Amino acid sequence: EVQLVESGGGLVQPGGSRRLSCVASGFTFSDAIMSWVRQAPGKGLEWLTGIYSDGDPYFEDSARGRFIPSRDNAKNTLYLHMDSLKPEDTALYYCVVERGGVWPRQYYYRGQGTQVTVSS
User: Fold this and answer.
1) What's the rounded mean pLDDT across residues 74-86?
2) pLDDT tens track for 47-77
3) Dihedral angle sign, alpha carbons of residues 116, 113, 66, 48
4) The predicted structure's pLDDT at residue 15
5) In whole numbers, what is the pLDDT of the chain averaged over residues?
6) pLDDT for residue 80
7) Rounded alpha-carbon distances, angstroms, from residue 23 to 13, 36, 95, 99
8) What is the distance between the alpha carbons of residues 35 and 41, in angstroms, rounded to a whole number?
């Protein structure tokens, strides 16, 4: 059974930083494209950034320059480091196992999410 468990969310002040984690199990983590998506209140799912099995990242416009993904294959863990957070970054953040080679992006599996709220 595939499991993705996110953690690290919480209340952050504008301009602050946060690191999210996602512990994966039930599949070969090192072979997977792992990505982060988010959903803000009343909005659709938004792709942010991901990291390929070879360690190369990609970034969508909303994440470029502020969000950095990383992975630790020995720990089956995906991370998202977020800097310069803004109130509009408030959302439920999910890690996903991305399906490669398709557009628009799709995922096979998604975790339950971790809430990030950016507010003073």
Assistant:
1) 97
2) 999 999 999 999 999 899 999 999 999 999 9
3) negative
4) 97
5) 96
6) 98
7) 25, 13, 9, 18
8) 20
Whether the bond between 14 and the residue before it is cis, its omega within 30 degrees of 0, is no
Distances (CA, A) of 99 to 32, 90, 105: 9, 26, 7
3-state secondary structure 12-79: ECCCCCEEEEEEEECCCHHHCEEEEEEECCCCCEEEEEEECCCCCEEECCCCCCCEEEEEEHHHCEEE
Residue 26 is encoded by which pair of tokens? Answer: 């039930």
Cα–Cα distance, 31 to 28 (Å, whole number): 6
pLDDT at residue 33 is higher than 90: yes
Tokens of 95: 């890690």
